[in-house]
């Protein structure tokens, strides 16, 4: 069976999201913004600054990266591939 990479966030219901930690819940509730940050090809540090300004939460680059790997794996890997080819 082929291992397929996908975004877990696309399969979570709002009820499932409501049981998550506050930071994850806020970020997943704003998944469209997270996807737009990834598509902007900004660095993770720049993205965390945007999150701090737009969503008014404190998050480190390390925590944000772990969040992306858990809930937005496919989009995060596409972001990394795009960064390589653009630079």
Strand content: under 5%
Roughly how much helix do the residues carry, as a percent range?
55-70%
Q: State the shape.
A: globular
The low-confidence runs, each spanning 5 or more residues with pLDDT under 50, are none
For the largest beta-sheet, the strand count, sense and barrel status come to:
none
Distance between the termini: 34 Å
> Can you tell me the number of structural domains?
1
Helix-strand category: mainly alpha
Q: What is the H-and-E element order?
A: HHHHHH
Averaged pLDDT, please?
86
Computed over alpha carbons, the radius of gyration is 13 Å
How many separate helices?
Answer: 6
Q: Please count the beta strands (DSSP E, at least 2 residues each).
A: 0
Molecular structure report:
The protein has six helices and no strands. With 87 residues, the chain is an all-alpha fold. The chain has one domain (8-86). The radius of gyration is 13 Å and the shape is globular. The chain starts with 13 loop residues before the first helix and ends with a helix.
